[in-house]
């Protein structure tokens, strides 16, 4: 059974966010086996997909697992799956995925860029929980927003780009937080560098202390920064040690996420379900 490791939201190996991708011939094996594979791969997400019969509302069924649990929506592993389908000749142009959060689409351009069409997350102003303030080491917080249920993060605006980059959170404290995770963000110090805002994402409750580039988080970052910067087309830079670029286009209830991907490992999974 063929398995790949794909770096998403980057065009260079060992950058961006790595995801496992496993294409199946038929229906999904038992959940316990899928979880074991994801735990063995031990990346922030491993994607599993199988083709759907003609006449279905989508072309492929898609699921995502962290090392600890299944998630409702994942951007970078969807981009990685679309990249594998395109480079393997299994999809040309637009592909539709049936997932827990609904039907998602991915369109691969001739230059290899993949554009994902995801639902835009709603943002509700919220107080900063004391536990989160403690976990962030008292970093100055400008605003806090709760995101929609299908994302389920707390979006926190910090004072500046340097604060985001240098943040050293207490992951054990964040692990007890009820949300999926915490996204911290700030406006770019110098937009001439090719990005408009920065962010980092922490998801220790799902076995991911820090996710290098979280596509789904940009469905909340897009409306957040579009309102502040007065533009619907923006570029975000996410990550700590590993970084990647996400181009976002806010289109009302939908958010388009565009990025590249590169396959860094192509191997064989020897353990069958």
TrEMBL record:
Keywords: Isomerase. It comes from the Bacteria. SUPFAM superfamilies: Diaminopimelate epimerase-like. The active site is at 45. GO terms for cellular component: cytoplasm. One of its GO terms (molecular function) is isomerase activity. Pfam families: PhzC-PhzF. The keyword DNA repair does not apply. InterPro entries: Phenazine_PhzF-like. Belongs to the PhzF family. NCBIfam families: PhzF_family. This is Oxidoreductase.
């Amino acid at each position: 059974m063929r398995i790949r490791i794909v770096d998403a939201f980057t065009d260079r190996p060992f950058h961006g966010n790595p995801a496992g991708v496993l294409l199946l011939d038929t229906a999904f094996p038992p959940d316990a086996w899928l979880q074991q594979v994801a735990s063995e791969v031990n990346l922030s997400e491993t994607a599993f997909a199988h083709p759907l019969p003609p006449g279905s509302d989508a072309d492929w069924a898609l699921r995502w697992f962290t090392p600890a649990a299944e998630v409702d929506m994942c951007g970078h592993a969807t981009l990685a799956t679309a990249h594998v389908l395109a480079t393997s000749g299994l999809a040309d142009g637009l592909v539709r995925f049936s997932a827990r959060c609904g039907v998602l689409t991915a369109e691969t351009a001739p230059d290899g860029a993949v554009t994902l069409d995801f639902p835009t997350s709603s943002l509700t102003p919220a107080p900063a929980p004391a536990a989160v303030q403690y976990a962030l080491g008292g970093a100055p917080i400008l605003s806090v927003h709760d995101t929609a249920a299908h994302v389920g993060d707390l979006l926190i605006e910090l004072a500046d780009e340097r604060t985001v980059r240098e943040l050293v959170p207490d992951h054990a404290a964040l692990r007890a937080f009820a949300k999926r995770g915490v996204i911290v963000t700030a406006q770019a110090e110098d937009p001439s560098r090719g990005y408009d805002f920065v962010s980092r994402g922490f998801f220790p409750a799902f076995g991911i202390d820090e996710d290098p580039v979280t596509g789904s988080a940009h469905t909340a970052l897009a409306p957040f920064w579009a309102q502040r910067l007065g533009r619907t087309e923006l570029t975000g830079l996410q990550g700590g040690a590993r970084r990647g670029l996400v181009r976002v286009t806010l289109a009302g209830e939908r958010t388009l996420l565009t990025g590249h991907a590169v396959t860094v490992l192509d191997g064989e999974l020897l353990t069958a379900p």
